[in-house]
Amino acid sequence: MKPTLVLVGRPNVGKSTLFNRLTRSRDALVADMPGLTRDRHYGIGRLGDRPYFVVDTGGLEPAAKDGILAEMARQADQAIAEADALLFLVDGRAGLTPQDKQIAVELRRTGRPVHLVVNKGEGMNRAVVAADFHELGFGDPIVISASHGDGVRGLIDAALAPFPVDPEGEDDGSGGPKVAIIGRPNVGKSTLINALLGEERVIAFDMPGTTRDAISIPFERNGKNYTLIDTAGLRRKGKVFEAIEKFSVIKTLQAIEQSNVAVLVLDASQDISEQDAHIAGFALESGRAMVVAVNKWDAVDSYRREQLKNDLARKLNFLSWAKFHYISALEGDGIGALMRSVDGAYAAAMIKLATPKLTRTLQAAITKQAPPRHGIFRPKMRYAHQGGSNPPVVVVHGNALEHIPDSYKRFLERNFMEVFKLQGTPLRIQFKTARNPFSDTE
């Protein structure tokens, strides 16, 4: 499982700036104004080939008893509770403050590993900047500049060092596929789990947010082993008010990361929302095989069914490789066909691709449509081999491949998926450019 690093500290010490650098994004708003971050932001960072979760929190105000500051502190407390390690940020230019001391006392009580991070240290003597903060009692402070990137690599190296490396995407298949049931709250995820198991194994209740955590359930169906993962529903940030419900978001993201196949459950009685597309997009970004289950199909009329199919084709067109099933979890209709698609998606995700056939498919695609020129040169692709599974990864070798546009990369992906009949799983292509032996000569 990926380690979870949580950024904590008083307002305006640079937590969001560091979050954006670690996740290589601009997801967290950054401005020279304290208290800008009020909610939690979740993202995935990567150190080399090693991924980890990173959580940005609002500024801690230990003295706040009510109002928005108290809510921000409560959200930060929940993030701290699910952390594997805490990155306690302080401001190297402002020096040690009484508020930093109060926060240090609170963090020490949590029992979580704490790394003291002195931010805004660019252009300053590191030993001098760190001197004031030794009295907090968290060992040697790590001086960084989140805005410039100075010292950030060493910080993450130190934070991840105690955690074992968990190879991403490896699965020996001995326990069968891990199937995460994902979707918005109250679309019938727990009802679907109970229909598969034939018992009331998880709570199913007509109230959004009944499931708070991700629950793993081993079971056997038709002689095959599976592990079902029932996850708490993800909802739009503006619609989440309870801190405990936010606490379950990281569990849902981890469940998707741990699974082999994600079953996205949609409610036929509701419109396809941006949040449905967002959940599907995260599973796709994680490389998970996917099956879409449109639940409560028995509760809508023929006009609504036709309208919904059009909406699915338009709003979830990026899932054209996934199979869609129209089911009733409550009545048990369509469950058998759904599980057959889960089996097919898992088989596609774990497939072994022969190098000769991959190379022939690559050359056939080039003959059909050559990559566009870059200047006077055209990228040259020579051969391909498999670089991983869950999802399948095809590594293409050649020259000047860094100039191949994304549109041509998608063209290759479609060709490989059609030839190898990879329905139910995304496919990734990596380009490896041969090194020019004369590049260092004059």
TrEMBL record:
Domain EngA-type G: residue ranges: 3-167, 177-350
Listed SMART domains: AAA (SM00382)
Keywords associated with the record: GTP-binding, Nucleotide-binding, Repeat, Ribosome biogenesis
UniProt keyword annotation of Repeat present: yes
Residues that hold GTP 2 according to the record: 183-190, 230-234, 295-298
NCBIfam families assigned to the protein according to its UniProt record, in alphabetical order: GTPase_EngA, small_GTP
PANTHER family: GTPASE DER
Subunit architecture: Associates with the 50S ribosomal subunit.
UniProt-recorded name of the protein: GTPase Der
Lineage, highest ranks first: Bacteria, Pseudomonadati, Pseudomonadota, Betaproteobacteria, Rhodocyclales
